[in-house]
Amino acid sequence: MDLLNRWIVPLEKRYDYLTTVQGTKIEVPFDQLLIFSTNLDPGQLADEAFLRRIKFKIEIRDPDEKQFRKIWEMVCKQKRIELDEKGVDYLIERWYRPFGRGFRMCQPRDLLEQMTSIAKYGMERLNFSPDLIDAACETYFISQKKDFGAKVRD
Fold first, then answer.
1. Terminus-to-terminus CA distance in the chain, angstroms?
2. pLDDT for 5-42, tens place per residue?
3. Are 14 and 29 in contact (CB under 8 A)?
4. Does pLDDT of 77 surpass 70?
5. Which burial class, exposed, middle or buried, applies to 43 when counting CB atoms under 10 A from its CB (0-12, 13-18, 19+)?
6. Is the Cα dihedral 111, 112, 116, 117 positive or negative?
7. Percent over 90 (pLDDT), the chain
8. Rg for the chain, CA atoms, rounded
9. Count of domains observed in the chain
10. I want to staple 102 with a disulfide (CB 3.0 to 4.6 A). Which of 20, 63, 112, 150 is the partner?
11. Does the predicted model carry a pTM greater than 0.85?
């Protein structure tokens, strides 16, 4: 909050003042492109006056199941790992639907990294077996209870 309040005037005026160790104030340009990202309600972070100074606000929604599967495909391609659709089916049926867990864009990357680490530790080949998926999810998700705030998807 202190940082946001500190930037209100420089954001609007496009200049700021810095104070040297000798106490001299120097005007400096403040022509910045600031990008804020949060999963909190912006109204909880700043007041209306500050939010007006942020000209563009873009909401990035969670992916639906089709988009989530596409992200899995892209992450696997990037990491040169063969995607196993049946493994993704298992993941969704076992770790998402029963708990009403929402899909997040970062999860395919994160879970694939978990699976890779677990496979390396066990000196196994990376695969989409239920055992490896379960091991990755058990270490990734906080609990098997419904994620608080997650939207239940049909």
1. 38
2. 787 788 888 899 999 999 999 999 988 777 778 888 88
3. yes
4. yes
5. exposed
6. negative
7. 60
8. 22
9. 2
10. 150
11. no
The answer to whether residues 83 and 136 belong to one domain is yes
Which tokens is 134 given? 């379960």
Q: Does residue 111 lie within any of the structural domains?
A: yes
Residue 59 inside a domain? The answer is: no
Domain boundary among 11, 27, 53: 53
Residue 145 lies in a domain: no
In a domain, 93, yes or no: yes
Q: How far apart are CA 144 and CA 101, in angstroms?
A: 9
**67: Cβ contacts below 8 Å, ≥ 6 apart:** 103
pLDDT value at position 35?
Answer: 79
- Which residues are within 8 A (CB) of 31 and not within 5 positions of it... i.e. 6 or more apart? 14
> Could you tell me the two tokens for 30?
């403040």
Taking the alpha carbons of 123, 126, 128, 133 in that order, is the dihedral positive or negative?
positive
Among 77, 144, 145, 72, which Cα is nearest to 103's?
Answer: 72
Phi, psi of 117 (to 5 degrees): -65, -45
Look at residue 153 and tell me whether its pLDDT is greater than 90: no
Q: Are residues 43 and 107 in the same domain?
A: no
8-state DSSP, 103: P
